[in-house]
Amino acid sequence: MTRLYRKNQLAFSLAWAGLYVVLFSAADSLSASLGTAKLVTAPLCLAMTALLALWIGKNGLGEIYGLSRVRLDCRRYLYFLPLVLIASTNLWGGFTMRFSPLETGLYVVSMLCVGFLEEVIFRGLLFKALWADAENVGWAVLLSSLTFGMGHIVNLLNGAQLLPTLLQICYATAIGFLFTVLFLRSGTLLPCILTHSAVNSLSAFAVERTGALDIAAAAVLTAVSLAYALWILRRSARP
Fold first, then answer.
1. What is the pLDDT of residues 7-25, one digit of tens each?
2. What region, left, alpha or beta, does residue 80 occupy, with left being phi > 0 and alpha being psi -120 to 50 degrees?
3. Can you give the pTM of this predicted structure?
4. How is the chain split into domains, by residue range?
5. Among 233, 219, 217, 224, which Cα is nearest to 90's?
6. How many other CB atoms are there within 10 angstroms of residue 31's CB atom?
7. How far is CA 196 from CA 89, 158, 165, 183, in A?
8. Are 110 and 45 in contact (CB under 8 A)?
């Protein structure tokens, strides 16, 4: 793993992205066939999270990929309040128990790990690799955001409906842009990981939204993410 990273960081990041998408999708399908949601996915995500975190720590890359402690002037980031709004999105339609207690626990564990994995892979590894290869950091931000958003198209293969998936691609791209800008300007991925993990985990308790409410929620998420990203670009200097 380290040999590939040293040879080609972009290939390394794409390999991790591909491995994550394929294994996560396969684990979800296998869990469903066994009759318990996330039964295989949860241990797989835990293993991948531990492997990636240990590898980053062992190679002293925590600061590079935003996992080290960074002191921030929270006023420059509006005290991260827009992230709280984004994190609560899955509870806007109400609260319910969608799964059995066991499945709920497995789901929450999986989604907490997904928050870490997707931020480190797409905002950390991929963005930094693209930035190193690109002449303009703007292209790296754009490509990283689009890759993250379009990656959600795989949900169609797992049985998701077309309209919710298209909406998810739109707001995921906007959120990806926000998180990349936040990482670029603050040097830390920790707020992004926490927000991403909260969004995903709380989906276990989300009431299924109607088409109109789904569209409205996607529009709000997209608008808030883009507005907050522009605020950070205007107000925050690089650390």
1. 999 999 999 999 998 999 9
2. left
3. 0.92
4. 2-235
5. 217
6. 20
7. 11, 21, 17, 13
8. yes
